[in-house]
Structure to design on (257 residues):
């Protein structure tokens, strides 16, 4: 069971982190708190904050793209003014100039994801002096043998980086 | 797979595939209730493993993206996402 106090404290943390990074939580407090509850439920269930509006597999390596904030948040904010769940919204939505509604699912289907995993595994490594790593959450790039433990820009964990070059 | 049945006006066989944690799923469920439409729903994330896989395949058959909420009417018409206007027009 998730308590109201737990929702409060996670809500406040997410709100603070969002503001620090120039993001906004949805100002519809009841809706947003319900999503925060979903994130906490998933954290208990899977051990990580899987997106509340998508079905997680429970295998972390297959769910990395939907650990909140997911890989799709920024492109969806850009194109639709809200993330898929509408937990995060654009400044226009906060200002009441537009509203957050349901948007198309950007995450590839299960079949497409499986195909992409197989393809990724087949791809050979390049010939650069260092590999270039890309943070899938914020796009930060770095050329090092390994990605940083924590993204210096958005604080996403190391496992959210993908090989870029 | 056990579906929860909600009584109301019969507008055909209305089945809602939802997640218990999802905001738009909750809004869709509330809308059906408010409209008083007879329907069944299932929280796919709460199903035991085998039934969950079965339910996912069912959803993917109607909606290849496998996203939620997926609303299926008479095994034919499919509404993906909380499309309030479309739901009202189809079932109103
Ligand atoms: S869609 Fe929104 S709530 Fe869901 S994981 Fe992405 S950022 Fe988080």
């Amino acid at each position: 069971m998730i308590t109201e106090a737990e929702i409060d404290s996670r809500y406040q943390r997410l709100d603070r982190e969002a503001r620090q990074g120039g993001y906004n939580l949805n100002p519809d407090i009841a809706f947003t708190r319900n999503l925060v509850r979903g994130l906490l439920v998933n954290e208990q269930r899977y051990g990580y904050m899987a997106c509340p509006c998508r079905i997680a597999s429970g295998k972390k390596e297959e769910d990395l793209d939907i650990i909140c904030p997911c890989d799709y948040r920024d492109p969806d904010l850009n194109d639709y003014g809200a993330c898929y769940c509408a937990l995060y919204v654009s400044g226009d939505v906060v200002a009441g100039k537009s509203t957050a509604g349901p948007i198309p699912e950007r995450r590839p289907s299960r079949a497409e994801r499986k195909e992409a995993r197989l393809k990724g595994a087949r791809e050979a490594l390049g010939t650069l002096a260092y590999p270039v790593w890309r943070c899938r959450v914020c796009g930060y790039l770095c050329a090092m043998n390994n990605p940083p433990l924590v993204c210096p820009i958005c604080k996403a964990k190391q496992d959210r980086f993908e090989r870029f070059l | 797979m056990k579906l929860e049945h909600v009584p109301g006006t019969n507008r055909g066989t209305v089945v809602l595939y939802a997640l218990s944690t999802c905001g738009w799923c909750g809004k869709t469920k509330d809308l059906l209730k408010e409209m008083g439409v007879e329907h069944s729903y299932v929280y796919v994330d709460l199903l035991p493993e085998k039934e969950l896989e079965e339910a996912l395949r069912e959803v993917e058959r109607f909606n290849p993206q496998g996203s939620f909420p997926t609303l299926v009417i008479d095994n034919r018409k499919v509404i993906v996402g909380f499309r309030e206007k479309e739901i009202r027009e189809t079932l109103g």
Helices of chain A lie at 4-20, 29-46, 60-63, 73-80, 91-94, 110-122. The mean pLDDT of chain A is 94. DSSP finds six helices and five strands in chain A. The two ends of chain A are 44 Å apart (CA to CA).
